[in-house]
Design brief:
The chain has 228 residues and is of the alpha+beta class. It has two domains: 53 residues, no CATH class; 127 residues, Sandwich (Immunoglobulin-like). The strands form two sheets. Strands 1, 3, 6, 9, 10, 11 and 12 form a seven-stranded antiparallel β-sheet that branches. Strands 2, 4, 5, 7 and 8 form a five-stranded antiparallel β-sheet that branches. Strand 4 and strand 5 form a beta hairpin. It is elongated, with a radius of gyration of 35 Å. The relative contact order is 0.15.
């Protein structure tokens, strides 16, 4: 009786299916790739007991598991690529803000190139009387502005025509805001526009960071508004 070479017959079938891969010298690697998986599967088929062949369900499960691992690897590569693109986007965003002004919490304002000071005050409730004082670095009152009754919320302000001698001092101007919400004039919070001197992309968790004149590093998330 003639004998059948199971390995030879199986190799012939696998060759036709394009599955049986030729043995090649490969570099040492700790990673199981697609070619490695196919070789392992081929070896398993070649050496299985012909009277107890590998169950189809088990084989499909192995293939599904490998497919899932491959999908996760591809997803990780995609996430790395997206992370790199986000980093480039953060750098571009940071660079675009150079020379612009951002609204940050504080009361120290530097006149802009047009010789004006601007910002916003935070009125906590309906105010029957609202006012702003502008003071020099020495505490001298330079200008007052009466804004009258105001609704609650952010209220913009802008001081134009600042005296030339004040501008020549090249110092900050202190902004003090007051509102009467029913208990007399009380100090309220303020924010000012200040120039972005430098910017950096920062870490993914930190985001873009601006070096703001008079305030140092300020996270982009803490910026309320910006202007040209």
């Amino acid at each position: 009786m003639s004998s059948i070479d199971n390995n030879s017959s199986l190799n012939s079938i696998l060759d036709k299916l394009g599955i049986n891969q030729p043995k090649e010298a490969k570099k040492s690697s700790d990673t199981l790739g697609q070619d490695d998986f196919l070789r392992l599967m081929t070896t398993q088929l070649q050496n299985q007991d012909p009277f107890k062949p590998t169950d189809n369900t088990e084989m499909i499960a192995q293939m599904a598991q490998f497919s899932m691992v491959t999908g996760q690897t591809e997803m990780n590569e995609s996430i790395k690529a997206i992370s790199g693109q986000l980093s480039e986007f953060r750098i571009a965003t940071a660079a675009n803000m150079l020379g612009h002004s951002v609204l940050v919490s504080g009361n120290k304002a530097y006149p802009d190139p047009e010789g004006t000071v601007s910002g916003a005050i935070d009125v906590p409730a309906v105010s029957t009387n609202t006012s702003i004082l502008y003071k020099s670095i020495n505490g001298e009152i330079l200008h007052t502005e009466e804004l009258g009754p105001q609704q609650a919320g952010l209220l913009g302000f802008r001081w134009e025509n600042i005296p030339q001698n004040v501008l020549e001092e090249n110092e900050y101007i202190t902004v003090e805001a007051f509102a009467d919400t029913g208990a007399g004039l009380r100090s309220v919070g303020s924010s000012v526009f200040s120039e972005v001197l430098a910017a950096s992309a920062g870490s993914p968790s930190e985001g873009v960071v601006y070096d703001v004149r008079g305030y140092g590093d300020v996270k982009a998330n803490d910026v309320k508004r910006f202007k040209n």
